[in-house]
Amino acid sequence: MNKLKVAFICVHNSCRSQMAEALGKHFALDVFESYSAGTELRPEINQDAVRIIKDLYGIDMNKTQKSKLLEDIPEVDVVITMGCNVACPSLPCKHREDWGLEDPSGKADEEFIKTARLIEEKVIELRERIALFSVNRL
């Protein structure tokens, strides 16, 4: 059976959605494929997010990820919006939810760490829900 494709999206695809893509690949690669995208490109991923994810998880997002537009990713089954506090981007999908995460951009490291840990919890919980759903469908 093919793995579900999950897209983590927000407007700029430079911080929270990038962190979620990295942590999705790290914690849930066995259950779903992770992508991130937005409606606007940034020249680089938020370097504070890159540093925190590397410090906490040993993942170098600069080597494996870049800012992408919605049309740059494949069709997905699940869309997770980060909590844009504006009009969040939308993609066709079978399931959509909003994680309501505050953007840590421009804030202290503690906010980035808090956001990373929240994303970790939510990715693991999503992995468990998708795994349970897949087992129950058999």
TrEMBL record:
Recorded superkingdom: Bacteria
Keywords linked to the UniProt accession: Arsenical resistance
A Pfam family that the UniProt record links to this protein: LMWPc
Protein name from the UniProt record: Arsenate reductase ArsC
Domain Phosphotyrosine protein phosphatase I: 4-129
GO biological process annotation, one example: response to arsenic-containing substance
UniProt-listed InterPro entries: Ptyr_pPase, Ptyr_pPase_sf
Protein's UniProt keywords contain Endoplasmic reticulum: no
Xref: PANTHER family: ARSENATE REDUCTASE
Species in which this protein is naturally found: Zhenhengia yiwuensis
